[in-house]
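User: We ran a pulldown and think these components assemble together. Before we commit to crystallization trials, I'd like a predicted model of the whole complex to look at. Sequences follow.
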Amino acid sequence: MTAPTSAPAPDLSPAPGAVPLPRMIAAQAGYELRATLRNGEQLLLTLVIPVVLLTLFSATSLLDLGPGRRVDFLAPGVLALAVMSTAFTGQAIGTGFERRYGVLKRLGATPLPRAGLIAAKTAAVVLVEAVQAVVIAAVALALGWHPHGNPLPVVALLLLGTAAFSGFGLLMAGTLRAEATLAAANLVYVLLLAVGGVVFPLEKFPAGVRSALELLPISALADGLRQVLQHGAALPGKPLLVLAAWAVAGLALAARFFRWE
Amino acid sequence: MAPPGDPAVELDALVKRYGAATALDGLTLRAARGEVTALLGPNGAGKTTAIEICEGYRRADAGTVRVLGADPAAGGRDLKARVGVMPQSGGVPGTARAGEFLRLVASFHRAPLDPAALLARLGLTEHARTPFRRLSGGQQQRLSLAVAVVGRPELVFLDEPTTGLDPQARHATWELVEGLRAAGVAVVLTTHHMEEAERLADRVVIVDHGRVVAEGSPAELTGAERQLRFRARPGLGLEELLTALPAGSAAKESPAGHYLVEGDVRPELLATVTAWCASHGVLAEDLRIERRTLEDVFLELTGRELRG
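Assistant: Here's a predicted model for the assembly, 569 residues in total across the polymer chains.
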Protein backbone atom coordinates (compact mmCIF):
# COMPACT_ATOMS: atom_id res chain seq x y z
CA MET A 1 0.00 0.00 0.00
CA THR A 2 1.17 3.54 -0.68
CA ALA A 3 1.44 5.79 2.33
CA PRO A 4 -2.06 7.24 2.64
CA THR A 5 -1.03 10.32 4.55
CA SER A 6 1.34 11.61 1.87
CA ALA A 7 -1.61 12.81 -0.23
CA PRO A 8 -2.83 16.39 0.28
CA ALA A 9 -5.91 16.68 2.46
CA PRO A 10 -9.07 17.20 0.39
CA ASP A 11 -11.44 19.97 1.48
CA LEU A 12 -14.03 18.00 3.39
CA SER A 13 -16.23 20.95 4.32
CA PRO A 14 -19.85 20.25 3.41
CA ALA A 15 -21.02 21.39 -0.02
CA PRO A 16 -23.88 19.03 -0.78
CA GLY A 17 -26.22 19.24 -3.74
CA ALA A 18 -27.45 17.02 -6.55
CA VAL A 19 -27.02 17.73 -10.24
CA PRO A 20 -30.22 17.85 -12.36
CA LEU A 21 -31.90 14.47 -12.88
CA PRO A 22 -31.13 14.14 -16.61
CA ARG A 23 -27.40 14.45 -15.89
CA MET A 24 -27.58 11.75 -13.24
CA ILE A 25 -29.47 9.46 -15.61
CA ALA A 26 -26.95 10.09 -18.39
CA ALA A 27 -24.04 9.30 -16.06
CA GLN A 28 -25.67 6.10 -14.79
CA ALA A 29 -26.67 5.01 -18.32
CA GLY A 30 -23.09 5.57 -19.49
CA TYR A 31 -21.82 3.42 -16.66
CA GLU A 32 -24.36 0.66 -17.40
CA LEU A 33 -23.49 0.72 -21.10
CA ARG A 34 -19.75 0.40 -20.41
CA ALA A 35 -20.38 -2.39 -17.91
CA THR A 36 -22.44 -4.33 -20.46
CA LEU A 37 -20.02 -3.87 -23.33
CA ARG A 38 -17.03 -5.15 -21.37
CA ASN A 39 -18.84 -8.13 -19.88
CA GLY A 40 -17.76 -11.16 -21.93
CA GLU A 41 -20.72 -13.39 -21.05
CA GLN A 42 -23.11 -10.58 -21.92
CA LEU A 43 -21.44 -10.04 -25.28
CA LEU A 44 -21.68 -13.76 -26.04
CA LEU A 45 -25.41 -13.55 -25.39
CA THR A 46 -26.09 -10.23 -27.08
CA LEU A 47 -23.84 -10.39 -30.15
CA VAL A 48 -21.99 -13.64 -30.69
CA ILE A 49 -24.92 -16.07 -30.49
CA PRO A 50 -27.25 -14.00 -32.71
CA VAL A 51 -24.55 -13.47 -35.35
CA VAL A 52 -23.52 -17.14 -35.32
CA LEU A 53 -27.15 -18.31 -35.68
CA LEU A 54 -27.76 -15.83 -38.48
CA THR A 55 -24.61 -16.80 -40.38
CA LEU A 56 -24.81 -20.54 -39.79
CA PHE A 57 -28.42 -21.05 -40.85
CA SER A 58 -28.24 -18.52 -43.71
CA ALA A 59 -25.14 -20.03 -45.23
CA THR A 60 -26.18 -23.69 -44.82
CA SER A 61 -29.40 -25.58 -45.44
CA LEU A 62 -29.34 -27.28 -42.03
CA LEU A 63 -32.85 -25.97 -41.38
CA ASP A 64 -35.88 -26.04 -43.66
CA LEU A 65 -37.00 -22.40 -43.49
CA GLY A 66 -39.75 -22.55 -46.12
CA PRO A 67 -39.80 -20.63 -49.39
CA GLY A 68 -37.84 -17.41 -49.98
CA ARG A 69 -34.29 -16.32 -49.20
CA ARG A 70 -33.10 -17.89 -45.97
CA VAL A 71 -31.60 -14.67 -44.64
CA ASP A 72 -34.89 -12.80 -45.15
CA PHE A 73 -36.53 -15.26 -42.75
CA LEU A 74 -33.64 -15.35 -40.29
CA ALA A 75 -32.69 -11.67 -39.91
CA PRO A 76 -36.01 -10.56 -38.29
CA GLY A 77 -35.98 -13.57 -35.95
CA VAL A 78 -32.40 -12.90 -34.88
CA LEU A 79 -33.25 -9.22 -34.27
CA ALA A 80 -36.05 -10.40 -31.97
CA LEU A 81 -33.60 -12.71 -30.21
CA ALA A 82 -31.19 -9.80 -29.74
CA VAL A 83 -33.90 -7.72 -28.07
CA MET A 84 -34.77 -10.60 -25.74
CA SER A 85 -31.12 -11.26 -24.84
CA THR A 86 -30.51 -7.66 -23.79
CA ALA A 87 -33.83 -6.49 -22.36
CA PHE A 88 -34.72 -9.75 -20.65
CA THR A 89 -31.82 -12.12 -20.04
CA GLY A 90 -28.98 -9.63 -19.58
CA GLN A 91 -31.04 -7.19 -17.57
CA ALA A 92 -32.54 -9.86 -15.32
CA ILE A 93 -29.15 -11.37 -14.47
CA GLY A 94 -27.34 -8.03 -14.09
CA THR A 95 -30.03 -6.44 -11.95
CA GLY A 96 -30.52 -9.63 -9.92
CA PHE A 97 -26.88 -9.62 -8.86
CA GLU A 98 -26.92 -5.87 -8.20
CA ARG A 99 -29.80 -6.46 -5.85
CA ARG A 100 -28.03 -9.38 -4.19
CA TYR A 101 -24.82 -7.41 -3.62
CA GLY A 102 -26.61 -4.38 -2.21
CA VAL A 103 -25.82 -2.18 -5.21
CA LEU A 104 -29.46 -1.15 -5.63
CA LYS A 105 -29.65 -0.35 -1.92
CA ARG A 106 -26.48 1.68 -2.05
CA LEU A 107 -27.54 3.60 -5.17
CA GLY A 108 -30.78 4.24 -3.26
CA ALA A 109 -28.71 6.25 -0.77
CA THR A 110 -27.38 8.52 -3.53
CA PRO A 111 -29.39 11.38 -5.04
CA LEU A 112 -30.22 9.18 -8.06
CA PRO A 113 -33.91 8.29 -7.55
CA ARG A 114 -35.20 4.80 -8.29
CA ALA A 115 -37.13 6.00 -11.31
CA GLY A 116 -33.91 7.56 -12.55
CA LEU A 117 -32.06 4.28 -12.14
CA ILE A 118 -34.74 2.45 -14.13
CA ALA A 119 -34.62 5.16 -16.80
CA ALA A 120 -30.83 4.78 -17.00
CA LYS A 121 -31.09 1.00 -17.29
CA THR A 122 -33.68 1.38 -20.04
CA ALA A 123 -31.51 3.86 -21.90
CA ALA A 124 -28.54 1.50 -21.68
CA VAL A 125 -30.68 -1.41 -22.93
CA VAL A 126 -31.88 0.64 -25.91
CA LEU A 127 -28.31 1.73 -26.74
CA VAL A 128 -27.02 -1.86 -26.57
CA GLU A 129 -29.92 -2.92 -28.80
CA ALA A 130 -28.95 -0.23 -31.29
CA VAL A 131 -25.42 -1.65 -31.42
CA GLN A 132 -26.88 -5.14 -31.87
CA ALA A 133 -29.22 -3.99 -34.64
CA VAL A 134 -26.38 -2.33 -36.53
CA VAL A 135 -24.14 -5.39 -36.30
CA ILE A 136 -26.90 -7.87 -37.16
CA ALA A 137 -28.16 -5.75 -40.06
CA ALA A 138 -24.61 -5.41 -41.42
CA VAL A 139 -24.03 -9.17 -41.26
CA ALA A 140 -27.46 -9.87 -42.78
CA LEU A 141 -26.88 -7.40 -45.61
CA ALA A 142 -23.55 -9.06 -46.31
CA LEU A 143 -25.44 -12.36 -46.52
CA GLY A 144 -27.80 -10.92 -49.12
CA TRP A 145 -30.64 -9.63 -46.94
CA HIS A 146 -33.28 -7.48 -48.70
CA PRO A 147 -35.39 -5.83 -46.01
CA HIS A 148 -38.77 -4.35 -46.98
CA GLY A 149 -41.35 -2.20 -45.33
CA ASN A 150 -41.65 0.94 -43.29
CA PRO A 151 -39.20 1.53 -40.44
CA LEU A 152 -41.89 3.01 -38.15
CA PRO A 153 -43.71 -0.24 -37.32
CA VAL A 154 -40.29 -1.89 -36.94
CA VAL A 155 -39.30 0.66 -34.30
CA ALA A 156 -42.71 0.29 -32.61
CA LEU A 157 -42.28 -3.49 -32.46
CA LEU A 158 -38.75 -3.22 -31.09
CA LEU A 159 -39.78 -0.72 -28.39
CA LEU A 160 -42.83 -2.69 -27.31
CA GLY A 161 -40.74 -5.85 -27.26
CA THR A 162 -38.12 -4.08 -25.16
CA ALA A 163 -40.80 -2.91 -22.72
CA ALA A 164 -42.30 -6.38 -22.43
CA PHE A 165 -38.97 -8.16 -21.94
CA SER A 166 -37.68 -5.49 -19.54
CA GLY A 167 -40.81 -5.80 -17.42
CA PHE A 168 -40.39 -9.53 -16.99
CA GLY A 169 -36.61 -9.31 -16.64
CA LEU A 170 -36.96 -6.81 -13.81
CA LEU A 171 -39.80 -8.82 -12.26
CA MET A 172 -37.50 -11.84 -12.12
CA ALA A 173 -34.52 -9.83 -10.84
CA GLY A 174 -36.60 -8.15 -8.15
CA THR A 175 -38.31 -11.21 -6.76
CA LEU A 176 -36.03 -14.27 -7.10
CA ARG A 177 -32.64 -15.00 -5.59
CA ALA A 178 -29.80 -13.95 -7.88
CA GLU A 179 -28.73 -17.56 -8.59
CA ALA A 180 -32.31 -18.53 -9.37
CA THR A 181 -32.60 -15.56 -11.70
CA LEU A 182 -29.37 -16.56 -13.45
CA ALA A 183 -30.64 -20.09 -14.04
CA ALA A 184 -34.21 -19.14 -14.93
CA ALA A 185 -33.29 -16.27 -17.27
CA ASN A 186 -30.93 -18.52 -19.23
CA LEU A 187 -33.49 -21.32 -19.34
CA VAL A 188 -36.20 -18.98 -20.62
CA TYR A 189 -33.76 -17.67 -23.24
CA VAL A 190 -33.00 -21.16 -24.55
CA LEU A 191 -36.66 -22.26 -24.46
CA LEU A 192 -37.93 -19.19 -26.26
CA LEU A 193 -35.10 -19.45 -28.77
CA ALA A 194 -36.28 -22.99 -29.48
CA VAL A 195 -40.05 -22.53 -29.62
CA GLY A 196 -40.48 -18.80 -30.34
CA GLY A 197 -40.10 -18.79 -34.12
CA VAL A 198 -36.65 -17.23 -33.91
CA VAL A 199 -34.85 -19.60 -36.28
CA PHE A 200 -37.20 -22.61 -36.30
CA PRO A 201 -40.40 -21.73 -38.20
CA LEU A 202 -43.58 -22.10 -36.13
CA GLU A 203 -45.20 -23.74 -39.18
CA LYS A 204 -43.36 -26.94 -38.18
CA PHE A 205 -45.43 -27.24 -34.99
CA PRO A 206 -48.93 -28.80 -34.89
CA ALA A 207 -51.68 -26.20 -35.40
CA GLY A 208 -52.94 -26.17 -31.77
CA VAL A 209 -49.47 -25.84 -30.30
CA ARG A 210 -48.60 -23.25 -32.88
CA SER A 211 -51.48 -20.92 -32.04
CA ALA A 212 -50.44 -21.04 -28.38
CA LEU A 213 -46.79 -20.40 -29.22
CA GLU A 214 -47.78 -17.39 -31.33
CA LEU A 215 -48.90 -15.67 -28.13
CA LEU A 216 -45.37 -15.70 -26.69
CA PRO A 217 -43.69 -12.29 -26.72
CA ILE A 218 -40.69 -13.60 -28.65
CA SER A 219 -42.95 -15.12 -31.34
CA ALA A 220 -44.98 -11.92 -31.60
CA LEU A 221 -41.82 -9.86 -31.99
CA ALA A 222 -40.21 -12.23 -34.53
CA ASP A 223 -43.44 -12.63 -36.47
CA GLY A 224 -44.20 -8.91 -36.48
CA LEU A 225 -40.69 -8.05 -37.69
CA ARG A 226 -41.01 -10.72 -40.39
CA GLN A 227 -44.41 -9.40 -41.52
CA VAL A 228 -42.84 -5.99 -42.09
CA LEU A 229 -39.26 -6.71 -43.11
CA GLN A 230 -39.88 -9.91 -45.11
CA HIS A 231 -43.36 -9.28 -46.49
CA GLY A 232 -43.66 -5.49 -46.40
CA ALA A 233 -46.76 -5.36 -44.18
CA ALA A 234 -47.76 -1.83 -43.17
CA LEU A 235 -49.17 -2.55 -39.73
CA PRO A 236 -48.61 -5.95 -38.06
CA GLY A 237 -51.71 -5.60 -35.85
CA LYS A 238 -51.82 -8.86 -33.94
CA PRO A 239 -48.11 -8.92 -32.98
CA LEU A 240 -48.32 -5.31 -31.79
CA LEU A 241 -51.35 -6.12 -29.64
CA VAL A 242 -49.74 -9.25 -28.18
CA LEU A 243 -46.55 -7.33 -27.33
CA ALA A 244 -48.53 -4.44 -25.83
CA ALA A 245 -50.38 -6.86 -23.57
CA TRP A 246 -47.12 -8.48 -22.42
CA ALA A 247 -45.56 -5.04 -21.87
CA VAL A 248 -48.44 -3.81 -19.71
CA ALA A 249 -48.51 -7.05 -17.72
CA GLY A 250 -44.73 -7.23 -17.23
CA LEU A 251 -44.25 -3.61 -16.22
CA ALA A 252 -47.26 -3.66 -13.89
CA LEU A 253 -46.08 -6.85 -12.18
CA ALA A 254 -42.53 -5.52 -11.86
CA ALA A 255 -43.77 -2.23 -10.40
CA ARG A 256 -45.92 -4.15 -7.94
CA PHE A 257 -43.55 -6.91 -6.80
CA PHE A 258 -39.98 -5.66 -7.36
CA ARG A 259 -38.08 -5.67 -4.04
CA TRP A 260 -35.04 -3.43 -3.89
CA GLU A 261 -33.12 -5.55 -1.36
CA MET B 1 -26.65 25.69 6.56
CA ALA B 2 -27.50 25.11 10.19
CA PRO B 3 -24.95 26.16 12.82
CA PRO B 4 -22.58 23.66 14.46
CA GLY B 5 -24.04 22.02 17.55
CA ASP B 6 -27.47 21.88 15.98
CA PRO B 7 -28.50 18.21 16.06
CA ALA B 8 -28.00 16.45 12.74
CA VAL B 9 -29.82 13.34 13.90
CA GLU B 10 -32.64 13.15 16.44
CA LEU B 11 -34.14 9.78 17.24
CA ASP B 12 -36.91 9.54 19.80
CA ALA B 13 -38.22 6.31 21.30
CA LEU B 14 -37.64 4.27 18.15
CA VAL B 15 -39.20 0.83 18.04
CA LYS B 16 -38.54 -1.70 15.29
CA ARG B 17 -39.63 -5.32 15.30
CA TYR B 18 -38.87 -8.10 12.86
CA GLY B 19 -41.57 -10.64 13.51
CA ALA B 20 -41.19 -11.71 17.12
CA ALA B 21 -37.69 -10.20 17.47
CA THR B 22 -37.38 -6.64 18.76
CA ALA B 23 -34.45 -4.89 17.11
CA LEU B 24 -35.08 -1.45 18.62
CA ASP B 25 -36.86 -1.02 21.92
CA GLY B 26 -37.33 2.70 22.49
CA LEU B 27 -33.96 3.94 21.25
CA THR B 28 -33.36 7.66 21.71
CA LEU B 29 -30.26 9.51 20.61
CA ARG B 30 -28.87 12.76 19.24
CA ALA B 31 -25.89 13.32 16.99
CA ALA B 32 -24.46 16.80 16.58
CA ARG B 33 -22.66 18.49 13.69
CA GLY B 34 -18.92 18.68 14.01
CA GLU B 35 -18.94 15.66 16.31
CA VAL B 36 -18.27 11.97 15.96
CA THR B 37 -21.01 9.89 17.56
CA ALA B 38 -20.11 6.23 18.02
CA LEU B 39 -22.76 3.57 18.51
CA LEU B 40 -21.13 0.83 20.47
CA GLY B 41 -22.69 -2.53 21.05
CA PRO B 42 -22.50 -6.25 20.39
CA ASN B 43 -23.80 -7.83 17.19
CA GLY B 44 -27.58 -7.79 17.17
CA ALA B 45 -27.79 -4.80 19.52
CA GLY B 46 -29.72 -2.80 16.92
CA LYS B 47 -26.95 -0.49 15.72
CA THR B 48 -27.34 -1.26 12.03
CA THR B 49 -31.14 -1.12 12.22
CA ALA B 50 -30.93 2.34 13.83
CA ILE B 51 -28.58 3.55 11.11
CA GLU B 52 -30.70 2.08 8.34
CA ILE B 53 -33.76 3.89 9.68
CA CYS B 54 -31.76 7.13 9.63
CA GLU B 55 -30.77 6.41 6.04
CA GLY B 56 -34.41 5.88 5.05
CA TYR B 57 -33.94 2.20 4.14
CA ARG B 58 -36.31 1.09 6.86
CA ARG B 59 -39.21 2.59 8.70
CA ALA B 60 -39.57 2.48 12.45
CA ASP B 61 -42.70 0.86 13.88
CA ALA B 62 -42.94 3.67 16.43
CA GLY B 63 -41.04 6.77 17.47
CA THR B 64 -39.79 9.76 15.51
CA VAL B 65 -36.79 10.25 13.25
CA ARG B 66 -35.38 13.58 12.12
CA VAL B 67 -32.28 13.64 9.94
CA LEU B 68 -31.03 17.15 9.12
CA GLY B 69 -34.51 18.29 10.13
CA ALA B 70 -36.29 16.02 7.62
CA ASP B 71 -37.97 12.62 7.60
CA PRO B 72 -35.53 10.23 5.89
CA ALA B 73 -38.33 7.83 4.91
CA ALA B 74 -39.76 10.56 2.67
CA GLY B 75 -36.60 9.97 0.66
CA GLY B 76 -36.10 13.43 -0.82
CA ARG B 77 -33.31 13.81 -3.36
CA ASP B 78 -32.02 16.92 -1.58
CA LEU B 79 -31.71 15.09 1.71
CA LYS B 80 -29.88 12.21 0.04
CA ALA B 81 -27.37 14.62 -1.44
CA ARG B 82 -26.67 15.91 2.08
CA VAL B 83 -26.12 12.51 3.68
CA GLY B 84 -23.29 10.06 2.92
CA VAL B 85 -23.73 6.38 3.62
CA MET B 86 -21.16 3.62 4.01
CA PRO B 87 -22.89 0.25 4.41
CA GLN B 88 -21.29 -2.59 6.33
CA SER B 89 -20.18 -4.34 3.15
CA GLY B 90 -20.66 -4.45 -0.58
CA GLY B 91 -22.90 -2.08 -2.43
CA VAL B 92 -20.55 -1.75 -5.38
CA PRO B 93 -20.96 -3.86 -8.54
CA GLY B 94 -18.26 -6.55 -8.62
CA THR B 95 -17.16 -5.65 -12.12
CA ALA B 96 -17.06 -1.87 -11.55
CA ARG B 97 -13.55 -0.45 -11.33
CA ALA B 98 -12.83 1.41 -8.09
CA GLY B 99 -12.18 4.78 -9.71
CA GLU B 100 -15.03 4.38 -12.14
CA PHE B 101 -17.66 3.79 -9.45
CA LEU B 102 -16.34 6.64 -7.32
CA ARG B 103 -16.49 8.98 -10.33
CA LEU B 104 -20.04 7.80 -11.09
CA VAL B 105 -21.30 8.68 -7.62
CA ALA B 106 -19.30 11.94 -7.68
CA SER B 107 -21.06 12.87 -10.93
CA PHE B 108 -24.43 12.86 -9.13
CA HIS B 109 -23.22 15.76 -6.95
CA ARG B 110 -22.82 19.42 -7.70
CA ALA B 111 -19.50 20.10 -5.96
CA PRO B 112 -17.92 16.71 -5.28
CA LEU B 113 -14.46 16.02 -3.97
CA ASP B 114 -11.88 15.18 -6.64
CA PRO B 115 -12.18 11.39 -6.89
CA ALA B 116 -8.48 10.97 -7.71
CA ALA B 117 -7.41 12.99 -4.65
CA LEU B 118 -9.75 11.00 -2.44
CA LEU B 119 -8.38 7.69 -3.75
CA ALA B 120 -4.86 8.96 -3.07
CA ARG B 121 -5.83 10.02 0.42
CA LEU B 122 -7.06 6.51 1.16
CA GLY B 123 -4.10 4.77 -0.47
CA LEU B 124 -6.14 3.41 -3.37
CA THR B 125 -4.50 5.18 -6.31
CA GLU B 126 -2.84 2.06 -7.65
CA HIS B 127 -6.16 0.20 -7.50
CA ALA B 128 -8.21 2.82 -9.35
CA ARG B 129 -8.63 0.48 -12.32
CA THR B 130 -9.12 -2.70 -10.30
CA PRO B 131 -12.61 -4.26 -10.40
CA PHE B 132 -14.32 -4.08 -7.01
CA ARG B 133 -14.45 -7.87 -6.58
CA ARG B 134 -10.65 -8.12 -6.95
CA LEU B 135 -9.98 -5.58 -4.17
CA SER B 136 -9.05 -6.94 -0.75
CA GLY B 137 -11.64 -6.58 2.00
CA GLY B 138 -9.80 -3.59 3.41
CA GLN B 139 -9.55 -1.90 0.01
CA GLN B 140 -13.27 -2.45 -0.53
CA GLN B 141 -13.97 -0.84 2.84
CA ARG B 142 -11.90 2.21 1.97
CA LEU B 143 -13.53 2.60 -1.44
CA SER B 144 -16.89 2.37 0.27
CA LEU B 145 -15.85 5.15 2.64
CA ALA B 146 -14.71 7.26 -0.31
CA VAL B 147 -18.09 6.77 -2.01
CA ALA B 148 -19.84 7.90 1.20
CA VAL B 149 -17.93 11.19 1.43
CA VAL B 150 -17.31 12.11 -2.22
CA GLY B 151 -20.49 14.24 -2.43
CA ARG B 152 -19.28 16.51 0.42
CA PRO B 153 -22.17 15.62 2.74
CA GLU B 154 -23.17 17.36 5.98
CA LEU B 155 -23.76 14.04 7.71
CA VAL B 156 -22.20 10.61 7.18
CA PHE B 157 -23.23 7.22 8.48
CA LEU B 158 -20.37 4.73 8.63
CA ASP B 159 -21.36 1.17 9.52
CA GLU B 160 -18.25 -0.51 10.95
CA PRO B 161 -15.83 1.52 8.86
CA THR B 162 -12.63 -0.20 10.00
CA THR B 163 -13.66 -3.83 10.42
CA GLY B 164 -11.05 -5.96 8.72
CA LEU B 165 -8.59 -3.13 8.06
CA ASP B 166 -4.88 -3.43 8.69
CA PRO B 167 -3.46 -0.84 11.12
CA GLN B 168 -2.20 1.49 8.39
CA ALA B 169 -5.54 1.51 6.55
CA ARG B 170 -7.36 1.99 9.84
CA HIS B 171 -5.16 4.97 10.54
CA ALA B 172 -6.00 6.48 7.13
CA THR B 173 -9.70 5.99 7.85
CA TRP B 174 -9.42 7.58 11.29
CA GLU B 175 -7.62 10.58 9.82
CA LEU B 176 -10.35 11.06 7.26
CA VAL B 177 -13.04 10.84 9.97
CA GLU B 178 -11.14 13.42 12.03
CA GLY B 179 -10.92 15.61 8.95
CA LEU B 180 -14.69 15.36 8.49
CA ARG B 181 -15.28 16.37 12.09
CA ALA B 182 -12.91 19.31 11.79
CA ALA B 183 -14.81 20.43 8.67
CA GLY B 184 -18.08 20.49 10.66
CA VAL B 185 -19.54 17.26 9.31
CA ALA B 186 -21.68 15.14 11.64
CA VAL B 187 -20.27 11.60 11.72
CA VAL B 188 -22.28 8.69 13.06
CA LEU B 189 -20.44 5.38 13.13
CA THR B 190 -20.92 1.95 14.57
CA THR B 191 -18.06 -0.09 15.88
CA HIS B 192 -17.08 -2.88 18.18
CA HIS B 193 -13.59 -1.50 18.55
CA MET B 194 -13.08 0.18 21.91
CA GLU B 195 -9.89 1.78 20.72
CA GLU B 196 -11.74 3.30 17.80
CA ALA B 197 -14.51 4.68 19.99
CA GLU B 198 -12.03 6.06 22.55
CA ARG B 199 -9.84 7.62 19.90
CA LEU B 200 -12.50 9.06 17.57
CA ALA B 201 -15.74 9.62 19.38
CA ASP B 202 -16.91 12.83 20.99
CA ARG B 203 -19.93 10.94 22.18
CA VAL B 204 -20.28 7.23 22.74
CA VAL B 205 -23.72 5.68 22.83
CA ILE B 206 -23.75 2.17 24.22
CA VAL B 207 -26.59 0.15 22.75
CA ASP B 208 -27.78 -3.23 23.94
CA HIS B 209 -31.00 -5.08 23.13
CA GLY B 210 -32.22 -2.12 21.10
CA ARG B 211 -31.90 0.40 23.92
CA VAL B 212 -29.36 2.99 24.93
CA VAL B 213 -27.81 1.76 28.16
CA ALA B 214 -25.33 4.59 28.61
CA GLU B 215 -24.03 7.59 26.74
CA GLY B 216 -21.52 10.37 27.12
CA SER B 217 -18.00 11.28 26.16
CA PRO B 218 -15.47 8.47 26.60
CA ALA B 219 -14.15 10.31 29.68
CA GLU B 220 -17.62 10.64 31.17
CA LEU B 221 -18.39 7.00 30.57
CA THR B 222 -15.18 5.67 32.00
CA GLY B 223 -15.67 8.22 34.78
CA ALA B 224 -13.39 9.20 37.60
CA GLU B 225 -13.27 5.57 38.63
CA ARG B 226 -9.87 4.04 38.61
CA GLN B 227 -8.52 0.68 39.43
CA LEU B 228 -5.22 -0.60 40.72
CA ARG B 229 -3.56 -3.69 39.35
CA PHE B 230 -0.41 -5.55 40.28
CA ARG B 231 1.23 -8.94 40.02
CA ALA B 232 2.57 -10.86 42.98
CA ARG B 233 2.87 -14.46 44.09
CA PRO B 234 -0.47 -16.27 43.99
CA GLY B 235 -2.63 -17.00 46.98
CA LEU B 236 -2.17 -13.90 49.12
CA GLY B 237 -5.05 -13.67 51.61
CA LEU B 238 -7.04 -10.58 50.70
CA GLU B 239 -9.31 -10.43 53.77
CA GLU B 240 -6.81 -8.50 55.81
CA LEU B 241 -6.25 -6.05 52.95
CA LEU B 242 -9.98 -5.51 52.56
CA THR B 243 -10.38 -4.55 56.19
CA ALA B 244 -7.63 -1.98 55.77
CA LEU B 245 -9.18 -0.47 52.64
CA PRO B 246 -11.95 2.17 52.70
CA ALA B 247 -15.51 0.85 52.73
CA GLY B 248 -16.84 0.15 49.23
CA SER B 249 -13.52 -1.09 47.89
CA ALA B 250 -13.15 -4.48 46.32
CA ALA B 251 -10.12 -6.66 45.80
CA LYS B 252 -9.75 -9.90 43.91
CA GLU B 253 -7.17 -12.23 42.47
CA SER B 254 -7.98 -13.24 38.91
CA PRO B 255 -6.24 -15.06 37.33
CA ALA B 256 -3.81 -16.44 39.88
CA GLY B 257 -1.08 -13.94 40.70
CA HIS B 258 -2.95 -10.99 39.14
CA TYR B 259 -4.55 -8.69 41.68
CA LEU B 260 -7.16 -6.03 41.09
CA VAL B 261 -8.30 -3.41 43.58
CA GLU B 262 -11.35 -1.32 42.70
CA GLY B 263 -12.87 1.57 44.56
CA ASP B 264 -12.03 5.18 45.26
CA VAL B 265 -8.39 5.02 44.23
CA ARG B 266 -6.64 7.84 46.07
CA PRO B 267 -3.04 8.22 47.21
CA GLU B 268 -4.03 6.81 50.62
CA LEU B 269 -5.40 3.67 49.05
CA LEU B 270 -2.17 3.17 47.11
CA ALA B 271 -0.22 3.59 50.35
CA THR B 272 -2.45 1.04 52.11
CA VAL B 273 -1.91 -1.51 49.36
CA THR B 274 1.86 -1.07 49.20
CA ALA B 275 2.09 -1.16 53.02
CA TRP B 276 0.12 -4.39 53.03
CA CYS B 277 2.46 -5.82 50.37
CA ALA B 278 5.48 -4.77 52.40
CA SER B 279 4.08 -6.42 55.54
CA HIS B 280 3.84 -9.69 53.56
CA GLY B 281 7.32 -9.29 52.13
CA VAL B 282 5.78 -9.06 48.65
CA LEU B 283 7.11 -6.91 45.84
CA ALA B 284 4.14 -5.76 43.74
CA GLU B 285 5.22 -5.97 40.15
CA ASP B 286 3.65 -4.15 37.20
CA LEU B 287 1.74 -2.04 39.67
CA ARG B 288 -0.40 0.45 37.85
CA ILE B 289 -3.44 2.65 38.31
CA GLU B 290 -5.80 2.72 35.36
CA ARG B 291 -8.99 4.35 34.41
CA ARG B 292 -11.72 1.94 33.54
CA THR B 293 -11.91 1.29 29.82
CA LEU B 294 -15.04 1.38 27.73
CA GLU B 295 -14.70 -2.38 27.63
CA ASP B 296 -15.05 -2.48 31.43
CA VAL B 297 -18.02 -0.12 31.31
CA PHE B 298 -19.67 -2.22 28.67
CA LEU B 299 -19.13 -5.43 30.61
CA GLU B 300 -20.61 -3.88 33.73
CA LEU B 301 -23.66 -2.53 31.94
CA THR B 302 -24.49 -5.55 29.88
CA GLY B 303 -22.77 -8.43 31.62
CA ARG B 304 -21.21 -9.35 28.30
CA GLU B 305 -17.95 -8.96 26.48
CA LEU B 306 -18.26 -6.61 23.55
CA ARG B 307 -16.43 -8.86 21.14
CA GLY B 308 -17.73 -12.13 22.55
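Chain B touches chain A through 59 residues (CB under 8 Å). That may be worth checking against your pulldown data before setting up trials.

User: Thanks, that helps.
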